[in-house]
Write a structure and sequence with these properties.
The chain has 22 helices and 16 strands. With 601 residues, it is an alpha/beta fold. The chain has 2 domains: 359 residues, no CATH class; 175 residues, IlvD/EDD C-terminal domain-like (Glucose Oxidase, domain 1, 3-Layer(bba) Sandwich). Helix 1 packs antiparallel against helix 16 and helix 7 packs parallel to helix 8. The chain is globular. 56% of the residues are buried.
Length: 601
């Protein structure tokens, strides 16, 4: 199948835009690779320090002929998705030993849970944690004693931060090793109804707690299709994970077999073998296009519109919002997983999952088929499904027909003809809207604005009954320079209540929404942000604003609006408390959201 003309054109545009930066990047990793295996250049004293605690592996490490894997782990047992990683190092070391290699935990990286910090002060560190993770992984790998790396991470900022680090050490092969989703619990739509009822005061906190605990109930990734599970999809579409590894539940024999297979494959693709596959060559322009296509085809997280440009820049590839918008216009929405459907990721996986989806995208010419991956050459490898037969891991042909067309459909008969994202632009700036879960009749909202400078102020207005007519709710001074760009997901239940009362409502913000943002139209990541004098800083209560996902417009309809002096916020309250005082440099240095909101890239 010939490549779709839009995919071809967007890829060519990215290649042209990235020509100089990509060449410099490839030259840099080639120079690092040319030095040969790092341990060959270590002094005896260097090596003695590195191997002192390695017990039975000391001789193999000192011999410097067996490949040594560096494990970078985001384990903690406060994140359900990362709790299974507690036992991975022992499993990996044993598997490496059996395969003739060695493995060491190179270092740990922080991993915060947005589900815990949602609506709390700690959320102001969430986006910046991505760059901290990249820095921490960089320190781990700077010991320069590894022939390949295994990256253990799943959730929101963790995978993007690890990808930035993996690309920075792009001369090293690397494989991402997931933990899988928890089994299905209370359906997400039922949980959402309880949240909404709590927001209206119809149920108490005891009922809310019961529903939340029944939904988030065990080890593994949360089962809705937010940023964590969008990350897992990306790692397969971009060729950094083994085929079919994303959505196998923790604690199962197949999950363990896939982890062992990742160890064996990492040892096989080092520079010391015959199939050298450095991360920097896997992460080319085509891999990033494939990732964006997968994001659109599945209605994935809006957070990746920030993370993908940052990840790409680490590999010398320059992405723009127009790339996302153009691909969204060409790629059909093939999956309905909560919040844009009732199914969760376990149901998606059972319906055919990524094996079916990737096969369909390949057949329709919507992804590049000839990419390099950690599994081998060509994305067709990712249409196979892992199976455990008699204790042996194999890959069988994946499903060629959907097993549930209410969850997963072929490219020829999608849920909608275009992807789940819109680029909005106008005299209020540029932002994005996730429309895959928004009813078509709500894609255009024109109404007076209510302007707020904090999420708490919106909540107070809601409790006071201040919203009685159609309203565009503007929450400004929420961008990366202002306060680290927290998610504003706690507003979703309240805005959904207003919408269900028959009001036309929309949210406009320079902040983020959750990766699971749902049925309320929300223009987010608006640039330039209000804190740097962006147009949102000139809005006043009562200004009429049009949020138009159909035409891709974000406009204030007041004559002379642009002549007003911008509001100047008092951001002093954002400077300290719960560690925020440590991140002043990040707030001062961070780039714009549309460029990835990066500090280190």
């Amino acid at each position: 199948m010939r490549l779709h003309p839009t995919v071809e054109a967007v890829t060519a545009r990215i290649v042209a835009r990235s020509r100089d930066s990509r060449r410099r990047y490839l030259d840099r990793i080639a120079a690092a690779a040319a030095k040969g295996p790092a341990r060959a250049h270590l002094s005896c004293g260097n090596q003695a320090h590195a191997y002192a605690a390695m017990g039975e592996d000391k001789a193999a490490l000192a011999g410097a002929t067996a490949a040594n894997l560096g494990i970078v782990t985001a384990y903690n047992d406060m994140l359900s998705a990362h709790q299974p990683f507690e036992g991975y190092p022992a499993l990996i070391r044993a598997a490496a030993r059996r395969a003739g290699g060695t493995a060491q935990v190179a270092g740990g990286v922080p991993a915060m849970c947005d589900g815990v910090t949602q609506g709390r002060t700690g959320m102001e560190l969430s986006l910046f944690s991505r760059d901290v993770i990249a820095l921490a992984a960089g320190i781990a790998l700077s010991h320069d004693t590894y022939d390949a790396a295994l990256y253990l991470g799943v959730c929101d900022k963790i995978v993007p931060g690890l990808v930035i680090a993996a690309a920075t050490f792009g001369h090293l092969p690397g494989i991402f090793v997931p933990a899988g989703p928890m089994p299905s619990g209370l359906p997400n739509d039922e949980k959402a109804k309880v949240r909404q009822a709590f927001a209206e005061g119809k149920v108490g906190r005891d009922r809310l707690m019961e529903a939340e605990m029944a939904s988030y109930h065990g080890p593994g990734t949360c089962t809705f299709y937010g940023t964590a599970n969008s990350n897992q999809m990306l790692m397969e579409l971009m060729g950094l994970q083994l085929p079919g590894a994303s959505f196998v539940n923790p604690g199962t024999p197949l999950r363990e077999a896939l982890t062992v297979a990742a160890v064996e494959r990492a040892l096989a693709i080092t520079a010391g073998g015959n199939d050298y596959r450095p991360v920097g060559e896997v992460l080319d322009e085509r891999a990033f296009v494939n990732g964006i296509v997968g994001l659109m085809a599945t209605g994935g997280s809006t957070n990746l519109v920030i993370h993908l440009p940052a990840m790409a820049r680490a590999a010398g590839v320059v992405l723009a919002l127009e790339d996302f918008a153009d691909l969204s216009g060409a790629v059909p929405l093939m999956a309905k997983v909560y919040p844009n459907g009732l199914a969760d990721v376990n149901h998606f996986h059972a319906a055919g999952g990524l094996a079916f989806l990737i096969g369909e995208l390949l057949a329709a010419g919507l992804v590049h088929p000839d990419t390099r991956t950690v599994a081998g050459d060509g994305l067709a490898l990712y249409t196979g499904e892992p199976r455990l037969t008699g204790g042996r891991l194999t890959w069988a042909e994946g499903p060629r027909a959907t097993l549930n067309d209410r969850i997963l459909r072929p490219a020829s008969d999608p849920f909608q003809p275009t992807g789940g994202l819109r680029l909005l632009a106008g005299n209020l700036g540029r932002g994005v809207m996730k429309v895959s879960a928004v009813a078509p009749e709500r894609h255009v909202v024109e109404a007076p604005v209510r302007v707020f400078d904090s999420q708490e102020a919106v909540k107070a207005a809601f409790r006071a009954g201040a919203f009685t007519s159609d309203t565009v709710v503007v929450v400004r001074f929420q961008g990366p320079k202002a306060n680290g760009m927290p998610e504003l997901h706690a507003l979703t239940p309240m805005l959904a209540v207003l919408q269900d009362r028959g009001l036309k409502v929309a949210l406009v913000t320079d902040g983020r929404m959750s990766g699971a943002s749902g049925k309320v139209p929300a223009a987010i990541h608006v640039c330039p942000e209000a804190a740097e004098g962006g147009p949102l800083a000139r809005l006043r209560d009562g200004d009429r604003v049009r949020v138009d996902a159909a035409a891709g417009r974000l406009e204030v309809l007041e004559p002379g609006f642009e002549l007003r002096d911008p509001a100047v916020p008092d951001l002093s309250a954002n400077a300290a408390g719960l560690g925020r005082e440590l991140f002043g440099l990040f707030r001062r240095s961070v780039g714009r959201a549309e460029d990835g909101a990066g500090v280190v890239v």
